[in-house]
Amino acid sequence: MKRRNAILNLALGVGGITMGAQAANARGAGNRSNQKMQNMDILTPDTSNGNINHSVCRWCYGSIPMEAFIEGVKEIDGLKSIELTTAEEWPLLIKNGLTAALGTGPFASIPNGFNDPKNHEKLYDPYIDLINKAAEHGIPSVIVFSGNRRGMDDKVGLENCAVGLDKIVKHAEKMGVTVVMELLNSKVNHKDYMCDHTPWGAELVEKIGSDRFKLLYDIYHMQIMEGDVIATIRKYKDHIAHYHTGGVPGRNEIDETQELYYPAIMKAIVETGYKGYVAQEFVPSWDDKLAALRHGVKTCDV
User: Fold this and answer.
1) Looking at CB atoms within 10 Å, which of 70, 83, 118, 292 has the fewest?
2) How far apart are CA 55 and CA 137, in angstroms?
3) 91-148 tens-digit pLDDT
4) 267 Cβ partners below 8 Å, 6+ apart?
5) DSSP SS3 for 297
6) Residue 34 contacts by C-beta under 8 Å, 6 or more apart in sequence?
7) Could you tell me the end-to-end alpha-carbon distance of the chain, in angstroms, rounded to an integer?
8) Burial class (CB in 10 A: 0-12, 13-18, 19+), 27
9) Spatial CA neighbour of 247 closest among 238, 237, 257
10) Which fold has domain 49-300?
11) Dihedral sign computed on CA atoms, order 116, 122, 128, 131
């Protein structure tokens, strides 16, 4: 029996979408809302509009064994990718009809990135190898990071990143793989991170001047740093090759508990002509983490 049907039978057996008053009171108002949405999802058939290529970040679901997570992902219509996975994990994804929209490796460090020339040599060979393996497995993109400032001027850091990424991006061009640098907030989660504003990242994209180097626009992070999400997406659409989601505040479900309205954001992304992936990168707070993931995918499927 499919997991979805099993849950449906259980829900109907205890009264469908209506929770007993005792259980609802015990869970509290916030959990009642979550439970209501979960049950609504259970009773709503999965249908993908096909406008968004859906992905999910593996680290958010690390408590679920990989094979079980893959089975859960396969049950969610339109979800095609488990990303921020390594080359060792890609064969299992491919075997199950999935891909990794964005690849990574243990050497990819948020605080120790390309803005420090000391890191260029040590990062070069691992990234060349990762790009080769990505091309071999049909993985479209790999992630890089600017690194932390540590007192460095942003313009100096930008120049250093351009120098350090030059050979890597040129190799990526030959292999048909896109290198993406993630925009992260330095206010809450990644103190001192340099690539923390879209204009800085866009300037680096223009400096490198390759279709194989773009930005990962993380909506959660950039809402914290800049706000004005839809206007920014429209302005910098040509500099962006990937998107991540997340609820603000708290980085949990992208539902009514947070300040962003994701259907409007997704419609704006589609209107730019974007054909890449959008990955769910919220940390699920629901007891049923796969139900939370399914809800997030459906919210973004405009």
Assistant:
1) 118
2) 17
3) 999 999 999 999 999 999 999 999 999 999 999 999 999 999 999 999 999 999 999 9
4) 302
5) helix
6) 253, 255, 285, 286
7) 29
8) middle
9) 257
10) TIM Barrel (3.20.20)
11) negative
pLDDT at 46: 62
Give pLDDT, residue 153.
Answer: 98
Q: What is the mean pLDDT of residues 15-44?
A: 42
Determine the residue type at 9: N
- pTM value? 0.87
Q: How many CB atoms lie within 10 A of CB 200?
A: 18
Weakest-pLDDT range from 18-27, 50-59, 186-195, 280-289: 18-27
What are the DSSP E strand ranges found in the chain?
Answer: 53-57, 79-83, 141-144, 178-182, 213-218, 240-244, 277-280
Please give the average per-residue pLDDT across 212-238, as a whole number: 98
* Cα dihedral 182→175→74→86 (10° resolution): -60
- Reported as a single tens digit per residue, the pLDDT across 13-26 is 433 333 333 333 33
User: Which positions ≥6 away from 240 have C-beta within 8 Å?
Assistant: 214, 215, 216, 217, 233, 274
Place of tokens 């990989």: 66
48 pLDDT band, cuts 50/70/90, is confident
Length of the chain (residues)? 302
Alpha helices in 112-213 (DSSP H): 120-137, 154-175, 198-208
What does the domain layout of the chain look like in residue ranges? 1-45, 49-300
* Nearest CA-CA partner of 291 in 70, 60, 39, 84: 39
Q: Which residues pair with 280 in a beta bridge?
A: 56
